[in-house]
């Protein structure tokens, strides 16, 4: 499912054409297609989805299935801007699982 | 059915067998991947005599058996089998599989020992040893094996940095980043612990520039044991927006999700909420609705209300619960929910249309600022629903917009949408395309011109408008549209050429009105649209003829002769001049026409070449030069000699296909037949020429083929396929598919039993009335011709079709032709037979 374009671009739902254009340009400058193709693609898709007023209205009136729920889920993951030091148990679990996965794949 | 297992070789049985038999059986078991049996057999053989070949086979069988067990998830058993394998000759076999088994069974200590053994093992390649060193590093770090790390001298040299790496991780996890970095920077970049250093470096950078931090992490390769940590950290750095975090979360394995979210600063309880929400979602809409209402305090009110309203069409009975929590829905919201509910329940089109129409009415009534655009969206949605319901819709050939709207719901809704939001260029294009598809020519002309008024800046709309006015022969107006397009897109060569064509067409109109002065003026305007450095010979021909019509004889003739030279070939050039004379309606017996005729006769004496003939064929194919056959035939007669010679040129099949394509497109089938017949005589075995002979004879309408001709076509297709002549085969196939209108080429079974049944089913209900109206004999004749033109016509000979029709008339004719009457008729027929 395509992520909510407003949250991908980090914009409020009442953003206008100019705001969206400005945000898109600034994001594309940071996440260029050469450096981060996947991320660029998601930003571009989000921009395309709300680039003009008709598209924004279409998204509001005929959203793809599950769109509102995705928006709701993303509100749960709104965190603070600062990074937190890793939890040691979680870090160990990631490392061990990574080793296990690698070993499985190399077999 | 129960799986039949292969009988396993028993120890007692094995003892009685000779070593040769055992080896043979062992090899067979290995080949057939019966590893358990192979282990037993080779064990017995090795016990008899430890030949290296048997030892190797035993080891292979052991590894195979362990792999089988591990695939089934029996890791404990697999590790036991591998350990027994090590005991055979103390060699290290399948070390990664063994490590995997130890890790899966939670034997971390044993796994570490195994990794350390592998790091120092000479049997392994250097890259493998490095990988095991990284694996040992991960195990040392995750087990926090303080005593082993402290006794660093007992570790291989490769792992000497275990101490600083472990300490750095510990400092990092309690937030002492600088201390962690001080320790990590002592780790050399060749160490298996180097990833710890890379991670910490990226972490320090992340506070200022997350993109650079991600770039630092890219130093950890995909094959590294630390790769999952790299992915989780990358995800954490990228968590710029909540949606990204969500998509990152959904793409990561469970343990990485938690790590990434907590590092990105998401509270742990919210992660738990997300998990319970996803669990509720998996249980279905109703469970999700109840879950959301029960845990409403976790979500922002507006988002929660939107999510619940979005679920309402699936759960109409839950509306009360929603209204109890958030207050009553507005009229517009209620009507929208009802309309979506109708769509969701796959209600009939009328019900859906009614529901959305109410929404439209409310929108107009409330006069909301975006009402027009929303109404347009709703109408477009309804057009989609109608299209799904009706398929391709009605045939609206030549219908004006008003009629098309009345007859076709798709047109109606698209036109309503266009009326509500005429500035939506995409919508206008959809409406135009649909109207063109259903043949409503006046309607699409009207829409294209209206759209051009509202979107004078849109090139595609202007192109449509230009085409529309060209079809109505309003060339001046078309030139105006072309000018507007070229103002926005000045280097568009196609539109420039179109502009010249349009102005030439306008000049012809003026010439026909006996206004050569205006024609010359228009053609002068066309001059400026030629590409720099290029001269359009067609335009020069028109200019020359206009000059001749104005009495400027010398200048006019010079221009025309130059233009013919520019065309490259005399005959096609003069034919083009002659066609232009006709198109300009210059008098047939006038001075100009006579001069052109003389020049054409002179050109007729020149020797034809293949490129000249192809140029002539492509000339017939140009839409703006289209002449009725009665005008073209006299011209062709004037170059009769030239054409006869051209027929006798030695054409290659490829070149002939080009010629045939052009002649087919311009419907010059007589000429095609003439060329193909000559070439067929020259090369009788070539399928392409015979195909074009048939095509030419049938004027391109293969559906008129006789049974014999159809059989020939099939044979020619088979021959072309056998000779790998793809071009001929594909052309036969395409022309057949187009002619028979069945969508099938000759390569597919042409008429299935369903096709035959369908044709007869369609005929049967009308047979009685046809016989009543026309009488039996005429009815049979008519039915024969109908059947002959149907997709099954080519399958039968004429006599067979006649018999089929007679039977059909007798069986399904009017009641007067009941079986009794048939009997009577037959009796009467007997009576009429002279004695």
Number of helices of chain B: 47
* Quantity of strands of chain A, as a count: 0
Average predicted confidence as pLDDT of chain A: 84
What percentage of residues of chain A falls in helices of 4 or more residues? 55-70%
Q: Helix count of chain A, per DSSP?
A: 6
Shape annotation of chain A:
elongated
Q: Biggest interface between protein chains, with counts per chain? A: A-B, 59 and 89 residues
CATH class bucket of chain A = Mainly Alpha
Q: By helix and strand content of chain A, what is the structural category?
A: mainly alpha
Q: Helix amount of chain B, in percent? A: over 70%
Structural class of chain B: mainly alpha
Summarize the structure.
With 107 residues, chain A is mostly helical.
General description of the model:
The complex is a heterodimer of chains A (107) and B (835). By secondary structure, chain A is mostly helical. Chain A has helices spanning 5-9, 17-30, 37-50, 53-61, 67-76, 88-106. In chain A, helix 2 runs antiparallel to helix 3 (37-50). The longest helix of chain A has 19 residues, at 88-106. In chain B, helix 41 (687-697) runs antiparallel to helix 42 (707-722). Chains A and B meet through helix 1, helix 4, helix 5 and helix 6 of A and helix 6, helix 8, helix 10, helix 13 and helix 14 of B.
Features:
heterodimer, A: 107 residues, mainly alpha, Helix Hairpins, 66% helix, B: 835 residues, disordered C terminus
Topology:
The complex is a heterodimer of chains A (107) and B (835).
Chain A lengths: L4 H5 L7 H14 L6 H14 L2 H9 L5 H10 L11 H19 L1
Chain B lengths: L10 H5 L3 H13 L3 H14 L3 H20 L3 H15 L5 H10 L3 H12 L6 H18 L2 H5 L11 H12 L3 H8 L9 H13 L3 H8 L9 H12 L3 H10 L2 H10 L4 H15 L2 H10 L6 H11 L7 H8 L4 H14 L4 H18 L4 H20 L10 H7 L1 H12 L4 H13 L3 H14 L4 H13 L3 H14 L4 H20 L3 H12 L9 H13 L3 H15 L2 H14 L7 H14 L5 H11 L8 H10 L1 H8 L5 H13 L3 H14 L4 H11 L9 H16 L3 H15 L12 H22 L1 H14 L8 H15 L6 H14 L3
């Amino acid at each position: 499912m395509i992520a909510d374009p407003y949250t991908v671009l980090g914009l409020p739902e009442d953003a206008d054409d100019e705001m969206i254009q400005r945000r898109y340009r600034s994001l594309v400058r940071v996440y260029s297609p050469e450096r981060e193709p996947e991320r660029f693609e998601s930003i571009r898709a989000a921009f395309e989805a709300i680039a003009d007023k008709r598209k924004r209205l279409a998204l509001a009136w005929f959203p793809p299935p599950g769109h509102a729920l995705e928006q709701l889920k993303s509100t749960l993951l709104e965190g603070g801007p600062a990074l937190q030091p890793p939890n040691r148990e979680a870090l160990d679990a990631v490392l061990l699982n990574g080793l296990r996965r690698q070993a499985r794949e190399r077999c | 059915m129960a799986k039949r297992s292969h009988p396993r070789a028993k120890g007692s049985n094995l003892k009685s067998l000779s070593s040769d038999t055992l080896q043979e059986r062992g090899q067979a078991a290995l080949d057939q991947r019966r590893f358990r049996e192979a282990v037993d057999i080779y064990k017995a053989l090795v016990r008899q005599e430890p030949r290296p070949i048997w030892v190797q086979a035993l080891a292979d069988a052991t590894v195979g058996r362990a792999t089988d067990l591990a695939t089934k998830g029996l890791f404990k058993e697999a590790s036991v089998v591998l350990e027994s394998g090590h005991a055979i000759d103390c060699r290290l076999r399948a070390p990664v599989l063994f490590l995997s088994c130890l890790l899966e069974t939670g034997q971390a200590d044993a796994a570490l020992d195994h990794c350390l053994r592998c790091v120092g093992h000479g049997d392994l390649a250097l890259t493998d040893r490095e990988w095991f060193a990284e694996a040992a590093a991960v195990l040392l770090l995750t087990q926090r094996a303080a005593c082993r790390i402290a006794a660093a001298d007992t570790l291989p040299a490769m792992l000497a940095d275990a101490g600083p790496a472990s300490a750095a991780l510990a400092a990092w996890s309690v937030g002492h980043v600088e201390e962690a970095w001080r320790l990590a920077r002592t780790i050399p970049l060749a160490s298996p612990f180097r990833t710890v250093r890379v991670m910490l470096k990226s972490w320090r950078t992340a506070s200022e520039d997350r993109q650079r931090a991600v770039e630092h992490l890219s130093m950890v390769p995909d094959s590294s044991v630390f790769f999952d940590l790299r992915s989780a950290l990358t995800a954490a750095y990228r968590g710029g927006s909540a949606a990204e975090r969500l998509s990152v979360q959904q793409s990561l394995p469970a343990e990485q999700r938690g790590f990434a979210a907590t590092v990105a600063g998401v509270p742990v309880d919210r992660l738990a909420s997300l998990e319970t929400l996803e669990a509720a979602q998996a249980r279905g809409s109703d469970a999700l609705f109840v879950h959301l209402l029960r845990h409403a305090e976790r979500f922002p009110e507006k988002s929660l209300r939107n999510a619940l309203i979005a679920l309402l069409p699936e759960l109409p009975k839950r509306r009360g619960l929603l209204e109890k929590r958030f207050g009553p829905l507005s009229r517009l919201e209620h009507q929208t929910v009802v309309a979506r509910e109708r769509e969701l329940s796959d209600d009939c089109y009328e019900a859906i249309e009614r529901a959305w129409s109410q929404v439209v009415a409310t929108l107009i009534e409330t006069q909301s600022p975006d009402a027009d655009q929303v109404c347009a969206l709703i109408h477009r949605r309804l057009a989609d629903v109608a299209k799904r319901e009706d398929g391709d819709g009605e045939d609206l050939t030549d219908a004006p917009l008003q009629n098309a709207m009345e007859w076709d719901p798709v047109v109606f809704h698209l036109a309503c949408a266009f009326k509500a939001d005429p500035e939506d260029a995409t919508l206008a294009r959809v409406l135009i395309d649909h109207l063109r598809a259903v043949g409503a020519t006046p309607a699409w002309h009207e829409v294209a011109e209206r759209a051009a008024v509202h979107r004078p800046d849109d090139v595609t709309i202007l192109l449509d408008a230009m085409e529309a006015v060209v079809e109505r022969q309003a060339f001046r107006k078309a030139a105006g549209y072309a000018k507007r397009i070229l103002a926005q897109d000045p280097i568009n060569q196609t539109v420039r050429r179109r502009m010249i064509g349009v102005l030439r067409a306008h000049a012809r109109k003026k010439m026909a009105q006996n206004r050569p002065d205006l024609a010359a003026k228009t053609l002068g305007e066309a001059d400026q649209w030629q590409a720099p450095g290029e001269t359009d010979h067609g335009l020069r021909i028109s200019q020359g003829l206009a000059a001749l019509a104005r009495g400027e004889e010398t200048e006019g003739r010079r221009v025309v002769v130059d233009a013919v030279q520019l065309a490259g070939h005399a005959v096609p050039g003069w034919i083009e001049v002659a066609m232009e004379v006709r198109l300009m309606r210059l008098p047939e017996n006038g001075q100009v026409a006579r001069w052109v005729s003389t020049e054409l006769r002179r050109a007729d004496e020149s020797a034809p070449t293949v490129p000249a003939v192809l140029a002539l064929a492509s000339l017939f194919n140009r839409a703006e030069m289209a002449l009725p056959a009665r005008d073209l035939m006299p011209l062709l007669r004037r170059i009769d000699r030239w054409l006869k010679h051209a027929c006798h040129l030695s054409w290659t099949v490829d070149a002939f296909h080009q010629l045939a394509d052009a002649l087919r497109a311009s419907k010059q089938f007589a000429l095609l037949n003439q060329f193909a017949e000559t070439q067929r005589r020259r090369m009788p075995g070539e399928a392409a020429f015979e195909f074009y002979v048939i095509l030419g004879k049938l004027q391109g309408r293969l559906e008129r083929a006789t049974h014999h001709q159809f059989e020939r076509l099939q044979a020619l297709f088979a021959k072309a396929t056998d000779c790998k002549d793809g071009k001929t085969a594909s052309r036969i196939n395409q022309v057949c598919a187009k002619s028979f209108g069945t969508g099938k080429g000759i390569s597919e079974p042409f008429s299935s039993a369903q096709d035959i049944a369908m044709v007869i089913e369609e005929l049967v209900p009308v047979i009685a009335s046809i016989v009543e109206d026309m009488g039996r004999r005429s009815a049979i004749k008519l039915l024969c011709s109908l059947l002959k033109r149907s997709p099954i016509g080519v399958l039968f000979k004429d006599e067979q079709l006649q018999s089929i029709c007679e039977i059909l008339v007798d069986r399904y004719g009017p009641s007067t032709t009941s079986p009794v009457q048939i009997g009577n008729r037959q009796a009467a027929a007997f009576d009429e037979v002279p004695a």
